[in-house]
Amino acid sequence: MTRHRTLSGGCHCGVVRFEVDATPDTPIWSCNCSMCDMTGYLHLIVDSACFRLTSGQARLNEYRFNSGTARHLFCSVCGIKSFYVPRSHPDGFSVNVRCLDGQPFAGVEPKSFDGQQWEQNAGVFGER
Fold it and tell me: How far apart are CA 74 and CA 20, in angstroms?
């Protein structure tokens, strides 16, 4: 069994900070949906028990579109979305790997996810 390690991260201005427990072999996902394609978001998907918001709750704004299921959360100061509640895992979180301190997944090749065809491909996220 691979051990979890606690990683920290946050938004650009530092108002929003979080911790996430992940294993070194947790897949990183690159998605081509309209949102991820525009922002360059790289997904690290974890269960809600593995995520802790440590500061900035009051400074988070929410954006929902399409089905309204995903809760896109971003810092109201700098505008960065460092994590959100994904449609694929409404009881979990997707952390933007690019917002983790120290680039702990540098060199890891992201798996591709065809988010432009979300309905047909959503089951692939079950591969953790």
Answer: 17
Are the beta carbons of 26 and 63 closer than 8 angstroms? no
Contact present, 97 and 87 (Cβ < 8 Å): no
Terminal Cα-to-Cα distance of the chain (whole angstroms) = 14
Q: Rg of the chain over CA atoms, in angstroms?
A: 14
- Banded pLDDT at 115 (limits 50, 70, 90): confident
Domain boundaries, the chain: 5-112
CATH number of 5-112: 2.170.150.70
Count of alpha carbons within 13 Å of 6, Cβ hemisphere only?
Answer: 7
**Rounded to an integer, what distance in angstroms lies between the CA atom of residue 125 and that of residue 45?**
8
pLDDT tops 80 at residue 25: yes
Strands 60-63 and 42-47: unpaired
pTM for the structure as a whole: 0.88
Q: Are 100 and 9 in contact (CB under 8 A)?
A: yes
Phi-psi region of 107 (alpha: psi -120 to 50; beta: other; left: phi over 0): left
